[in-house]
Amino acid sequence: MKETLNRVLDRLANFFAHRKGLLPLVGMVLILINGLLQFLPIDNLSLIEKNILLHIGIILAILGFLLAWSL
Questions:
Q1: Interval 47-68: pLDDT, tens
Q2: Separation of alpha carbons 36 and 48, rounded Å
Q3: Domain boundaries, the chain
Q4: Could you tell me if 24 and 4 are in contact, meaning their C-beta atoms sit under 8 angstroms apart?
Q5: What angle, 0 to 180 degrees and rounded to 10, lies between the N-to-C axes of helices 52-70 and 22-37?
Q6: Radius of gyration over alpha carbons of the chain, in Å?
Protein backbone atom coordinates (compact mmCIF):
# COMPACT_ATOMS: atom_id res chain seq x y z
CA MET A 1 0.00 0.00 0.00
CA LYS A 2 2.78 2.45 0.89
CA GLU A 3 4.74 1.58 -2.24
CA THR A 4 1.72 2.22 -4.43
CA LEU A 5 1.06 5.57 -2.77
CA ASN A 6 4.74 6.51 -3.13
CA ARG A 7 4.68 5.67 -6.84
CA VAL A 8 1.51 7.70 -7.39
CA LEU A 9 2.95 10.70 -5.54
CA ASP A 10 6.22 10.45 -7.49
CA ARG A 11 4.37 10.40 -10.79
CA LEU A 12 2.22 13.36 -9.77
CA ALA A 13 5.28 15.30 -8.63
CA ASN A 14 7.05 14.62 -11.92
CA PHE A 15 3.96 15.58 -13.91
CA PHE A 16 3.39 18.87 -12.09
CA ALA A 17 7.10 19.75 -11.98
CA HIS A 18 6.99 20.41 -15.72
CA ARG A 19 3.50 21.97 -15.68
CA LYS A 20 3.63 24.32 -12.71
CA GLY A 21 0.88 26.64 -13.88
CA LEU A 22 -1.67 23.98 -14.79
CA LEU A 23 -3.62 23.78 -11.52
CA PRO A 24 -3.85 27.56 -11.00
CA LEU A 25 -4.97 27.93 -14.61
CA VAL A 26 -7.66 25.27 -14.22
CA GLY A 27 -8.78 26.92 -10.98
CA MET A 28 -9.05 30.32 -12.63
CA VAL A 29 -11.03 28.85 -15.53
CA LEU A 30 -13.48 27.28 -13.07
CA ILE A 31 -13.87 30.63 -11.31
CA LEU A 32 -14.58 32.35 -14.64
CA ILE A 33 -17.10 29.67 -15.62
CA ASN A 34 -18.84 30.16 -12.28
CA GLY A 35 -19.02 33.90 -12.93
CA LEU A 36 -20.48 33.37 -16.39
CA LEU A 37 -23.07 30.88 -15.12
CA GLN A 38 -24.43 33.52 -12.74
CA PHE A 39 -25.83 35.45 -15.72
CA LEU A 40 -27.62 32.54 -17.41
CA PRO A 41 -31.38 32.35 -16.91
CA ILE A 42 -31.24 28.88 -15.32
CA ASP A 43 -33.29 28.42 -12.16
CA ASN A 44 -32.84 25.88 -9.38
CA LEU A 45 -29.44 24.60 -10.43
CA SER A 46 -27.53 23.86 -7.24
CA LEU A 47 -24.22 24.19 -9.11
CA ILE A 48 -24.94 27.90 -9.54
CA GLU A 49 -26.78 28.57 -6.28
CA LYS A 50 -24.06 27.17 -4.04
CA ASN A 51 -21.11 28.41 -6.14
CA ILE A 52 -19.54 24.96 -6.22
CA LEU A 53 -17.31 25.80 -9.18
CA LEU A 54 -16.09 28.92 -7.40
CA HIS A 55 -15.08 26.99 -4.30
CA ILE A 56 -13.41 24.18 -6.26
CA GLY A 57 -11.61 26.75 -8.42
CA ILE A 58 -10.26 28.66 -5.43
CA ILE A 59 -9.06 25.46 -3.74
CA LEU A 60 -7.37 24.25 -6.94
CA ALA A 61 -5.71 27.60 -7.56
CA ILE A 62 -4.33 27.84 -4.02
CA LEU A 63 -3.18 24.22 -4.11
CA GLY A 64 -1.55 24.84 -7.49
CA PHE A 65 0.32 27.90 -6.26
CA LEU A 66 1.56 26.02 -3.21
CA LEU A 67 2.65 23.06 -5.35
CA ALA A 68 4.40 25.29 -7.88
CA TRP A 69 6.20 27.11 -5.10
CA SER A 70 7.39 23.88 -3.49
CA LEU A 71 8.49 22.20 -6.73
A1: 777 889 899 999 999 988 888 7
A2: 10
A3: 2-70
A4: no
A5: 160
A6: 16
8 A C-beta contact, residue 13 and residue 71: yes
DSSP string, 13-71: HHHHHH-TTHHHHHHHHHHHHHHHHTTS---S-HHHHTTHHHHHHHHHHHHHHHHHHH-
Residue-wise pLDDT tens digits, 27-45: 999 999 998 888 887 776 7
Give dist(CA 34, CA 26) in Å, integer: 12
- Rounded CA-CA distance 41/2 in Å is 49
Contacts of 61 (CB under 8 A, 6+ apart): 23, 24, 27, 28, 31
